[in-house]
Amino acid sequence: MITTLLLAGSILVSAALFLAGLPFFFLFLFIPLIPLLRGRREEKTCPLCGFRTDDPRVSYCPYDGTALTIPASP
User: Fold this and answer.
1) Residue 51, Cα to own-chain centre: how many angstroms?
2) What is the DSSP string of 12-53?
3) 22-67 pLDDT, tens per residue?
4) CA of 38: how far to CAs of 13, 33, 54, in Å?
5) Longest C-alpha distance within the chain, in Å?
6) Which of the listed residues 10, 20, 63, 66 has the most CB atoms within 10 Å of its CB?
7) Where are the domains of the chain?
8) DSSP 9
9) Is residue 54 helix, strand or coil?
10) Which pLDDT does position 51 carry in this prediction?
11) Distance, CA of 55 to CA of 33 (rounded, Å)
12) Which long-range contacts (CB under 8 A, 24 or more apart) does 31-34 make?
């Protein structure tokens, strides 16, 4: 939801700058930052080989089949 609002705002600002005769740079500067706004995801690690992923669909290591664990937070 927030990503959609930010994208719409970015496009709106870019359109306003374009109509004002300025280059529409805001859209191109802001879009790469959208993934940073999603927040921190839990990273799971394989205790045997060290494979790491933050994909919630992956529960087992693709290399050795071991269940992935979530490391304890400090």
Assistant:
1) 20
2) HHHHHHHHTTS---HHHHHGGGGGGGG---PPEE-TTT--EE
3) 766 655 666 666 666 666 778 899 999 999 998 889 999 999 999 9
4) 22, 10, 13
5) 59
6) 10
7) 2-39, 41-74
8) H
9) coil
10) 94
11) 20
12) 31/7, 34/3, 34/6, 34/7
Matching residue, tokens 């994208």: 7
Q: Are 33 and 26 in contact (CB under 8 A)?
A: no
- Rounded Cα distance, 35 and 39, in Å: 8
* Tokens 């790469």 found at: 32
Residue corresponding to tokens 């919630």: 56
pTM for the model stands at 0.46
Q: Name residues whose C-beta falls within 8 Å of residue 3's C-beta, 6 or more positions apart in sequence.
A: 34, 37, 38
